[in-house]
Design goal:
single chain; alpha+beta; 7-stranded mixed beta sheet; 20 helices
């Protein structure tokens, strides 16, 4: 796997190399630093040695004195009234301490703070109705997990089955069974905007339409979920595998009752999150409630079967999209409807969020003036839908890229040339899309042209080595990715800010506590790099703290590729305070004017006089211990806390319906080269390339790793992974049925990183966490279509492309 980084054309003068934006977006030049920058350097990740040598500590490694284990009783039917839950036999089982049904828990319903969606009012254990297979009905606590599971089988659950709906079409039928009878239909969310400009365009231009379906699959991280809770001295401590400790704390307070100050949430090492662990699940409430009730520590660790049927599923979106097309093939307006199968809807944050993001991503990097897209979130008797890496962007990108290919085919225009006609040019930036996204920077055209150049080279190389008659194809996908998004539209509570505490010790070491979370993405290295960069220190002198509500400042965690953007903003502001105070102390010690000092490697020196210097350790010692040496009027201490709220971000739609929901936007183009075995229908991805732009790169190793991992997941979601249902029964409940790609299915991946610094973010950086997973569905499907064009296959509009699906496409084309 290869990776290179280079500035985007024309990007060099957009922002000073190490410039930062303050809260209002104004540029603040840093204190000059005489050492080379750490940004853009391939710094080895500081967390990896501990993790790869088995010294990580995950939820399953948390063992407390007197701890007992929990197991859940789950519904085996998809839809039923709960007539009763009898736990007597379970309580008589060996080693059992307690057993509870839903009505036994004296807790509140999970809040529904989103006024634009219907209230679900679900409880952690079902009380009156179950709406999906796997819904928790009761919990049993015993000496160990084995005894708890044995006893759980003795819980007698009386369920009265109800009619099942497990497709969107069935749920929307006039006579459909209702999951929530008080709604009178099965729509959790329904948004129907109007746009006269769209209507006008569709009234006078040619219309080309398509329906594009992304199937249901899931994140399937290496580590399933888990919770450990202890109630001691009036405080509740909860260890949980989450991406947002403070959100969990707030929700525990709302549902269980204790004030937030009486709850501590700790996130140990997380073996992959991918958005699935940014949801708050029934078990997250029940295990802490048990610890409070039993006055002893309780642990629950999810097994893989539980994970596949109860951890949130994702995608399952159908996008009906039409374009009003000019004579040259360019699009003047988009109109359509997004229908998403939300499962039972019993999830927080709500599962309709990806639908809204898909609407915002439909225009991509294209010059499309107008858009009007309706959204319907439909409840069915399936596992609730939730977050997964990409969060609607793969689905939206798949739809628009497939439609552009269809337009080119119907009008006889080369689809690559058609894209070039529509892609935003550098001189048009900043540019606002029809959905309201404000693109302040980027290399949209350059990334596309470079990816096409690479893709054609890779295809030619594969053709040279292929046997005659081999069906090879290449496909492309170009897109934008919103990073550092607001959480308000899916939570109704939180916005987009984050915090950092940076403090010196007396020996010159620094502890940086931040509100973001680590889940394997290199967050510790990123934070340490930024702190060391800002303070002119060796990275080894920086200790990073995160994932603990008692020791880290308030923050919203890690999701939406936000960590680098928001953490860097808070770190830059805190470091500015420390540099100013440190400069004042150093100037006093050197008997020099503060304006004459500059940051040197590990301290301060008089500009032009390297011999006249003091280290940060000397400054810290004066600030913390030898305080009698402080300048007059300077208070003891050398620490700073700062919060950063990205500027220019909307938290709710504007009056015109548009919304700039992200702090900034990356861009990329993917190229996929595939081989299709027409006899078996098997698709092999032979080569893959990504030309990506996330602004100024902090660490090329981390960026490449994020892209490679995302591409691997995208290949899995496009060709292998799926969550089928039959009459509400999940059919992929183990890895015997849920197929994941192995290393053998992941090709060599070339990455090139362009650099178009964002003018209003700290250091000019953007996020990169979801970049790799957005492009594969559109790129791979187009590549398969290209490979099968000699057989008449065209307009592939769905995933996954399993062998059976590919064979069907070939047979239909032949007939």
């Amino acid at each position: 796997m290869t990776a290179t980084t280079r500035p985007a054309a024309g990007a060099g003068d957009r922002v000073a190399p190490a410039a930062r934006g303050d809260r209002g977006g104004r540029m603040v030049l840093p204190t000059p630093n005489t050492r080379p920058t750490l940004l853009g350097v391939r710094v080895p990740r500081i967390e990896d040695d501990r993790l790869v040598t088995g010294r990580g500590r995950y939820v399953a490694d948390v063992v407390l004195p007197g701890m007992v284990e929990a197991a859940f009783v789950r519904s085996e039917v998809p839809h039923a009234q709960v007539r009763g839950v009898a736990t007597t036999a379970a309580l008589d089982s060996p080693g059992v301490y307690a057993a509870f049904g839903g009505s036994d828990l004296d807790i509140s319903a999970v809040p529904d703070p989103m006024p634009w969606a219907r209230p679900v009012q679900h409880f952690p254990l079902a009380r009156d109705r179950v709406r999906y297979v796997g819904c928790p009905l009761a919990v049993v606590v015993a000496d160990d997990r084995y005894l708890a599971e044995d006893a759980a089988e003795l819980v007698d659950v009386d369920l009265d089955p109800l009619p099942t709906v497990d497709t969107v079409d069935a749920a929307l039928a006039a006579d459909a069974p209702l999951l929530y009878p008080e709604w009178n239909d099965n729509l959790l969310l329904s948004l129907a905007p109007e746009n006269p400009a769209v209507d006008e365009a569709f009234g006078r231009l040619r219309v080309i339409s398509g329906t594009y379906t992304t199937h249901r699959h899931a994140a399937v991280p290496l580590e399933p979920r888990g919770v450990v809770a202890e109630y001691r001295d009036g405080r509740l401590s909860v260890w949980t595998s989450t991406q947002s400790a403070y959100m969990v704390r707030s929700m525990l307070s709302a549902v269980l009752g204790p004030p937030e100050r009486a709850i501590r949430v700790i996130t140990p090492d997380v073996g992959g999150g991918f958005g699935q662990k940014n949801e708050i699940y029934p078990e997250d409430y029940v295990i802490p409630w048990l610890a409070m009730r039993l006055r002893r520590p309780v642990r629950w660790i999810e097994d893989r079967h539980e994970h596949l049927i109860t951890a949130c599923h994702a995608r399952d979106m159908r996008i009906e999209l039409s374009a009003a097309v000019r004579d040259d093939g360019t699009i003047e307006a988009l109109r359509g409807r997004i229908r998403t199968d939300l499962g039972s809807g019993e999830m927080f944050p709500a599962g309709f969020g990806p639908s809204l993001v898909a609407v915002g991503s439909l225009c991509g990097p294209y010059r499309i003036p107008h858009q009007c897209v309706a959204v319907q979130g439909v409840v069915t008797n399936k596992t609730p839908l939730g977050a997964y890496r990409g969060f609607g962007m793969p689905e939206g990108t798949f739809a628009i890229e497939r439609l552009v290919d269809k337009i080119g085919r119907e009008l006889g225009i080369d689809p690559l040339e058609l894209r070039r006609r529509m892609i935003i040019e550098p001189h048009e930036l900043p540019y606002e899309t029809a959905a309201g996204a404000r693109l302040d920077s980027g290399s949209h055209r350059e990334a596309f042209d470079r990816a096409v150049e690479i893709g054609e080279r890779l295809l030619a190389a594969e053709r040279e080595r292929a046997a005659p008659g081999t069906h090879l194809g290449v496909g492309y996908a170009t897109y934008i990715e919103g990073v550092g998004a607001s959480a308000f539209s899916i939570t109704g509570s939180w916005s987009g800010q984050d915090s950092a505490d940076v403090r010196f010790d007396a020996d010159g070491g620094v502890t940086a506590a931040v509100g973001i979370s680590a889940m394997g993405q290199g967050a510790h290295t990123m934070v340490a790099t930024l702190v060391a960069e800002e303070l002119g220190l060796p990275i080894e002198q920086v200790r990073v703290v995160m994932g603990d509500t008692d020791t880290a400042p308030f923050g919203l965690g890690s999701w939406a590729s936000r960590s680098a953007v928001v953490a860097s903003g808070a770190i830059a502001q805190a470091a500015e305070v420390l540099r100013r105070k440190g400069t004042e102390i150093a100037a006093h010690l050197l008997e020099a004017a503060p304006d004459d000092l500059e940051l040197a490697d590990g301290g301060f020196q008089v500009r032009g006089s390297p011999g006249s210097s003091v280290s940060w350790a000397q400054v810290a010692r004066v600030a913390l211990t030898r305080t009698f040496e402080l300048p007059p009027g300077v208070e003891p201490g050398l620490d700073a806390r700062a919060s950063y709220d990205p500027p220019g971000m909307d938290h709710a739609p504007r009056p015109d319906g548009k919304m700039n929901a992200s702090a900034t936007y990356t861009n990329a183009t993917h190229a996929a080269v595939v081989e299709v075995d027409t006899a078996t229908g098997v698709v092999r991805v032979l080569r893959y390339a990504v030309v990506h732009d996330c602004g100024r790169v902090i660490n090329p190793l981390t960026v490449a790793g994020q892209i490679h991992g995302g591409v691997a997941q995208g290949i899995g979601g496009t060709l292998y992974e799926q969550m089928p249902y039959d009459d509400g029964q999940p059919l992929a409940t183990t890895f015997m049925d849920y197929v994941l790609p192995t290393a053998c299915e992941i090709p060599e991946i070339e990455t090139e990183e362009l650099s178009s610094p964002a003018p209003e973010t700290p250091f000019g950086i953007k996020g990169v966490g979801e970049a790799g997973i957005i492009g594969p569905p559109a790129a791979i499907v187009r590549a398969v279509e290209h490979a099968l064009e000699p057989l008449g296959v065209a307009d592939i509009d769905t995933t996954p492309l399993t062998p059976a699906t590919v064979r069907r496409l070939i047979e239909e084309a032949a007939s």
